[in-house]
Design brief:
The chain is mainly α. It is built from 3 helices and no strands. The relative contact order is 0.14.
Length: 113
C-alpha cells in the first residue's frame, strides 16, 4: 500500500480551501445586492469616499493593534507589518469597490426598466 506524499495532500488542501473561500466571495461581489440603495452618481461617489476612508482606517488600526500586541524587533518587522496591512487594505478596497460598482450598475438598470 502506498501512502500519499505530504506535499500532494497539502496542495490539494490549499486548492480546496481556495475554492471554498473564493467561490462565495466572488458570488457575493458579482451579485450586486450589497449596495441596494445606491442609484445616483452622488450616492456612488459618497459611498466610494466611505469605502476609501474605511480602508485607510483598517490599515491604521491593523498596524496599531499589531504593534501593541507583539514585541518590536526593529524596522524590518514594522515594514513587514505595514506591507501585510497594505496588502489586506488593498484587497478589502478592491472587493468593496467591485461590489459597489456592480451594485450601482444593476440598480441603474433596474431604475431604467
Amino acid at each position: 500500500m502506498t501512502s500519499i506524499p505530504a506535499l500532494a495532500s497539502e496542495k490539494s488542501f490549499l486548492i480546496i480551501a481556495a475554492v471554498l473561500i473564493l467561490y462565495p466571495l466572488l458570488r457575493y461581489i458579482l451579485s450586486g445586492i450589497e449596495y441596494a440603495d445606491i442609484f445616483t452618481s452622488q450616492q456612488y461617489k459618497k459611498q466610494m469616499k466611505h469605502i476609501t476612508f474605511r480602508s485607510i482606517i483598517f490599515f491604521i488600526l491593523f498596524n496599531l493593534i499589531y504593534a501593541t500586541a507583539t514585541e518590536h524587533h526593529g524596522w524590518s518587522t514594522i515594514i513587514q507589518t505595514a506591507g501585510l496591512a497594505l496588502i489586506f487594505m488593498t484587497l478589502l478596497f478592491l472587493i468593496d469597490i467591485s461590489s459597489l460598482t456592480v451594485s450601482y450598475k444593476k440598480n441603474k438598470n433596474l431604475e431604467t426598466d
